[in-house]
Amino acid sequence: MAEDIQSLLHNISILDDEEEDLVITKSWVEESVKKVKNCFLGKMLIHKPYRIEGMKAVFRKIWRLESSLTIQDVGDHMFVFQFEDDLEKDRVLMKQPWAFNKSLLLLQEFDGMCFPKDVEMYWCPFWMQVHGLPIGLM
């Protein structure tokens, strides 16, 4: 299979009229950074079918969002959540853990500078109340 791909790539060529300079302007970079400014990555620990629109409606309600929320499915039960308001994004991250359809949602800051599948998502903060501890452990 690898040899097949190499032979196909070997036969690819760019014609003179197809050659263009790729110009990356400051405004293009600024616009790209702005797109992921108020984003975090979420991974749903779920094996049930789900709908993005249903998930969006539920999260808008339980997170009590006043501004817009965009959810983009990036595969492997992972999503990019983009908030219009950075204060709402920070509040959602601070009040973890969250669940959807009885399944845990792992959340992590995301700057868009890597592929979502390369982000290790293996922890979630939990609040615990423990009774009967000795004073020295409080």
Overview of the structural elements:
The protein has 138 residues and is an alpha+beta fold. The protein is 28% helix and 21% strand. The chain is built from four helices and five strands. A five-stranded antiparallel sheet has the order 2-3-1-5-4. The longest helix has 11 residues, at 52-62. The radius of gyration is 21 Å and the shape is elongated. The mean pLDDT is 83.
Primary descriptors:
about 140 residues, alpha+beta, 4 helices
Number of distinct helices = 4
Share of residues in strands: 15-25%
What would you call the shape? elongated
**Number of DSSP-assigned strands:** 5
Order of helices and strands: HHEHEEHEE
Unreliable spans are none
Largest sheet: 5 strands, antiparallel
Give the terminus-to-terminus CA distance: 60 Å
Any idea what the radius of gyration is?
A: 21 Å
- What is the residue-averaged pLDDT? 83
- The structural class is alpha+beta
Helix content: 25-40%
Strand order of the largest sheet: 2-3-1-5-4
Helix-strand blueprint:
Blueprint: H1 2-10, H2 26-35, E1 39-44, H3 52-62, E2 69-75, E3 78-83, H4 86-94, E4 98-100, E5 103-109
Antiparallel strand pairs: 1-3, 1-5, 2-3, 4-5
What is this structure, in a nutshell?
With 138 residues, the protein is an alpha+beta fold. It has helices spanning 2-10, 26-35, 52-62, 86-94; strands at residues 39-44, 69-75, 78-83, 98-100, 103-109.
